[in-house]
Amino acid sequence: MQEQGTPRRHLLALGIAVPLAAAGTGTAGAVPATSRTGRADRAGARAGHPFQDPGLPFAERVEDLLGRLTRGEKISLLHQHQPAVPRLGIRSFRTGTEALHGLAWLGKATVFPQALGLASTWNPALIERVGAAVGDEARGFQHERPKGWGLNLWAPVVNLLRDPRWGRNEEGYSEDPYLTGAVSVAYGTGLQGEDPRYLKTAPTIKHYLANNTERNRSTSDSILPARVRQEYYEAAFEPALSGDAVTGVMTSYNLVNGRPATVNPGLNDTVRKWAKRELFHVTDADAPNNLVNGQSYYPTLAEADAAALTAGIDSFTSDSEDSSKTVKALTTALDKGLISESDLDTAVRHLLAIRFRLGEFDPDGGPYAKITKSVVDSPEHRALARETAREAIVLLKNAPQRKGGALLPLDARRLEKVAVVGPLADTLYTDWYSGSLPYAVTPREGVAERLGSGGKVTGGESVDRIALRNAATGAYLTAGSGADGAVLTERATSAGATEQFDVFDWGQGIVTLRSAANAKYLGYDGKVFRNDQEQPGGWFVQQQFTLVEQDDGTRLVRYAGYDARTDWFGDKEYFKAGEDGTVTLVAEKDATRYRAETVRDGVAEAVAAARDADVAVVVVGTMPAINGREDHDRTDMALAEGQAALVKAVHRANPRTVVVLESSYPQTVNWEQAHIPALVWTTHAGQETGNALADVLFGDHNPAGRLTQTWYRSQDDLPDLLEYDIIKADRTYLYFRGEALYPFGHGLSYTTFRYGEPRLSARTVEPDGTVTVSVKLTNTGRRDGDEVVQLYIRRRGSRDKQPLRQLRGFERVRLKAGRSTTVRLRLRAADLAHWDVTRGRKVVESGVVEVQVGASCTDIRGRTTLRVRGEKIPPRDLTGTTRAADFDDYRGVRLVDESKARGEAVGADEDRAWIVFRDADLGRGAEKLTARLAREGRGSGTLTLRLGSPRGRVVGSAQVPSTGDRYDYRTVTARLRGARGRHDVYLVFSDPMRLSTFALR
């Protein structure tokens, strides 16, 4: 963020728009060069090997150390948990410290807003500061080397948010690759530090590639035609890698075009070509084993690990700390000739390059070694957490009231009482990759702190408190009162505190039960239930229940934890007390019927508080571990039923209602948008959430967060979750033709801004040129504020389907009330390019591009046109060998692996499936079709060439015999008749088969 008149540019044109560190930006590790384990280590240190000399170039030091390692030692270093090599004074090293929005799983550390919230700031300069703080804290923890220590950080996540139902939506930045690239460059640059040679930390970007679904995530197949892969999915990864902002990638679990991402040849063929330095690639957890087990891609682990290594994997994240399986598999692969020692050397060279840059082998640990644990949760980081949380908040709606102006910002001087109600009013939740909160400022606490003493804040969590009484025996479900709770039993005859539970509704029937006796959640450990959980969480979220209403008004208590599956428990999912009173799980037919006695009516309590207040603030939203998270996609985007009812009841009681949505993904809040005067959205924003919300609600901070993905009105606006072809399916703001609830880039302010007409530095641009787009921006309101000026382009006319609009620049600008500034955004002709499938390269087409400047993708304030002197895509030439995968359109086919090692083919899935090659010039006549196909099925099929449409004129048909194997391709031919002139050429498959290449001659 900049003061007026000095806007900071964030056009993602590497070296031009997004500020990048110098080549090799990084910092050193703090690990001493010598080990403390014994005499052999000290002897190695005294030897003064060249690899220990910081005066030598890194490359020389790496080669010296590599040459001293035995074959066995090299293999041992390829596992996530790299052992020490005492004879050389080398300490152990572990890859993979989670650092998505602060350090996770290491204890208390500064927790910043979820990654989605970081991106919602649209402020790369701020995000770089956050990354720097997280990197500092990683260094601080490293001094104590706790369990889980490591300076190889697994962040950022750049998987695109193409579908808000993705269970890991909060981990990504945006549905747009340009914005994702800008934010990932900023965060990664901060993590690495500013030293030109050394690394503060070594960030690993994840998950490569096209990983946006959790359903069957290790076996689902992301089908990516060439254009969508190049222009969308890979475009999100390239900026941070080509900008030296990260040091490698983590592969994803899924398959990409039929091949597991763990053995994606793009790791070497594509990703390493983007980078200027050596990269260090890792697998996701246990992904190597998936190659043999769930994916059944290789028969043995030796073959699987060999394939991963040669594809570009340098470190195997497998079997937790047990490296024996990986070591055995790679040793076997080497002995059988599946890999060579040079393959080992390549991978070890990559990992050593990172360890040297971390300063591990320098006597003083390098320039970042002196950072101590005092930086963790420091006053500076607390202030940064608050600043980031408030900059991320998005004002969705702020409608004028019948009397006076908009409801927000609230005027503290005129408020005698504020009701802060809702299930998230008094609690801050963390997600799977959050650190432990060092402290928590809840929304109610933030508002109370802002208003000061005097009892001006009232309300409650607005959830029912109930007791559950056995309808047959009269006994109550009873928990414990101590900090550790107690095993749930059914024995009390009256409802005291240990028999009372607060019921939190998270939607789709799922509730959590918090004990009134100790404020701990009821959870399951696989044997018994106990009220000892701080919050719902864990890999298997075992604090979920459903209160199933029966015809007679009683309830069954169903355990709905993520591990309640038939293969684990059979049909035992319901509560029933055993002979000793301990609650166990039984089948539905044997379940106990309970009477739910209401001790406190949450909605009634909220209504009473709202009716008696000047304004009501209702804090609702999601719990990050429930109804969508890693390994579980969402099936509903609506606000939880009970929360929606709460909002309506409070609004009836007090029309001056503000709804704060605290959620990890977009929600279909149509009623709320239509009826509630003011709506505010934030992610789960960490320890300073309450202060940040108060800053915005009372106008101490003028909100300027912007949405980074489309908020849809209905799930009906979305195609199947597994549909990855965003171009064909009209996905994301780029291609979506419907009316969004809130569009990409949306966000309001407490002031107003006027845009002047955009002006170009030149009316035409060459393919290698750049133009500057200038627009005058004026703050026409009475408050200082920020505006995010967004630059979009739209091509008028193209050979290929183009986005309806496409982000190509943005700037968050701070302006004082009544002041103006000129915002200048640079637009490269290269930013206008798209992937030309006819020639397999990017192309800048000649023509006219509409340049749009505005406040969101639909709130365009000014337009102008730019003429591009590029090239015209010529007609298709199909006379040479054409890859079938380079089609223009398709039906009934998918892309598949041509072989296990590399290459893509077209696999027909159904009868009369087809692919088309548009505008092909057949000249005076092609006489012969030659094609390579594989066909597993018995008998023979046909590949028919038609002109104009899938049912158009037949000019040739080839018989395709059975080859018996999907990877066994045979060449077939067919004579062509009448194949001349320019046509759309269709290849139609009679039944399932695979086509690799073809030619028309």
TrEMBL record:
GO terms for molecular function: hydrolase activity. Keywords: Hydrolase, Signal. Residues 880-1001 form the CBM6 domain. It comes from the Bacteria. CDD domains: beta-trefoil_FSCN_BglX-like, CBM6_xylanase-like. SMART domains: CBD_IV, Fn3_like. InterPro entries: Actin-crosslinking, BXL, CBM6, Cellulose-bd_IV, Fn3-like, Galactose-bd-like_sf, GH, Glyco_hydro_3_C. SUPFAM superfamilies: (Trans)glycosidases, Actin-crosslinking proteins, Beta-D-glucan exohydrolase, C-terminal domain, Galactose-binding domain-like. Pfam families: CBM_6, Fn3-like, Glyco_hydro_3, Glyco_hydro_3_C. Residues 27-37 have a biased composition (Low complexity). Residues 27-54 are annotated as: Disordered. Belongs to the glycosyl hydrolase 3 family. This is Glycoside hydrolase family 3 C-terminal domain-containing protein. It comes from Streptomyces smyrnaeus. The lineage of its organism: Bacteria, Bacillati, Actinomycetota, Actinomycetes, Kitasatosporales.
